[in-house]
Amino acid sequence: MTEPQSKKKFHHGGLKTALIDATIEMIRDRRVEDVSVADAARAAQVSSGAPYRHFKDRDELLANVAAEGFRRLSKAKITAFGKHPKHSIESLIAGGCAYAEFGSDNPELFHLMWAAARNQDTTDVARVASNATYNTFIEELTGIMKAQGLGHLDPHEFGTPLWAMVHGFASLLIGKPAILDSSRQALRSRIADATWAYVRGYQTG
To answer: Model-level pTM?
Structure first.
């Protein structure tokens, strides 16, 4: 007996999105290493051969999952920025909190994203998405720096310690949650204190 071509009907592009979304949902509860293309097909309720219309293999599926992770991270940060006065330190803090919270809420996806971003192929879908996310951060940071009288500084150099700080919080919350108060209030307080101290150090230096 042959397997049905697909258990669901998708519009153009819908199958690809469904497979990516299904994989992201799966890795909320299991390791990336334990996910196969067949698992993604079952989760999306399509035939085992359907994913190969869009992905040549598991690596390509996971690269696209990582890319979607970066897009979701970027959206979370942009939403956080927009809840505060434009180019304010408060918006910078909110963006940092959104980053750390995204990482701690999506540990397997977060690890996958940064593993995929190390791919040196600049045309790789995950690498392209990671660069776009970084550029969004630099664009916002440049406006904040100008508004805070720090426009003469290089935003890449200035932003690296801030990025390292929030990435570090996310990594600690994932790997060593017992040593930190993981409540949102505590996390936001730590990020706010560190951000203000860093910015004021430059403003008064």
So the answer is: 0.89
